[in-house]
Design goal:
221 residues; alpha+beta; four-stranded antiparallel sheet; 5 helices
């Protein structure tokens, strides 16, 4: 059994001036984390969350704010759907939440319930300081499910090695796997909803800690 205390540090992201009035990122670095292919303790909480969201009225103001954030970033949210909205549409058509690995599954759960876009990265693969900026001309990175993610003019997170993530597509370089022992969690919050930052991150960190300690219960979170 792993009962090692989890270190949860708020992580500072430098935000480019032209994005400061659009996105308010909140981030945390957590370690140690335990990532497994599938955590059976999550089965029922994820089913319950999907069932609840199928009958709960959509938070129209929050959805509109996220869509407006995308538009102001030069992204058409009807073509490149916010990850939170895509998850909600998935469960409302009767599907279950996707299962990737235990940590990704928890983050998808939080994104579904908060209706905010999240980024999740292997912190050991993030080199140096992190900046949130627009991608440069011709800039791209190898995506998790795509050959290349082209990010010219779009919001990206970048470290000393270059861009590695945005609100819809993360990079293969910083992907969370079963070998991940430290994670960087980023919530891309529309600036008008900045007051949701503390609530959303507190919920997320509690669930991450519950899922990362063998023998604890995520059902109580």
């Amino acid at each position: 059994m792993n009962h090692a205390p989890m270190n949860r540090e708020r992580f500072q992201i430098a935000v480019a001036d032209d994005l400061a009035a659009i996105v308010c990122p909140v981030a945390a670095r957590v370690s140690p984390v335990v990532v497994v292919a599938r955590d059976a303790r999550l089965d029922q909480p994820l089913r319950d969350a999907a069932a609840r969201l199928r009958t709960t009225a959509e938070s129209a103001d929050r959805t509109a704010a996220v869509r407006t954030m995308y538009k102001r970033l030069g992204i058409d949210p009807t073509k490149t759907r916010p990850s939170s909205e895509a998850l909600l549409r998935r469960v409302r058509r009767g599907d279950e939440l996707p299962r990737i690995n235990s940590l990704v599954d928890v983050i998808n759960w939080c994104s579904l319930e908060t209706q905010l876009s999240f980024g999740l990265y292997d912190a050991s693969k993030v080199v140096g300081a992190v900046t949130m900026r627009r991608g440069g001309e011709g800039e791209s990175y190898a995506g998790i499910r795509k050959d290349e993610v082209h990010v010219a003019g779009r919001l990206v997170l970048a470290d000393d090695l270059g861009a590695f993530g945005n609100p819809t597509s993360d990079s293969a370089r910083t992907a969370v796997t079963e070998t991940t022992t430290a994670a960087l969690i980023v919530i891309f919050i529309p600036a008008p909803l900045a007051d949701l930052s503390e609530e959303a991150m507190t919920l997320t960190l509690a669930r991450v800690q519950g899922s990362s300690v063998h023998g604890s219960s995520v059902l109580e979170l």
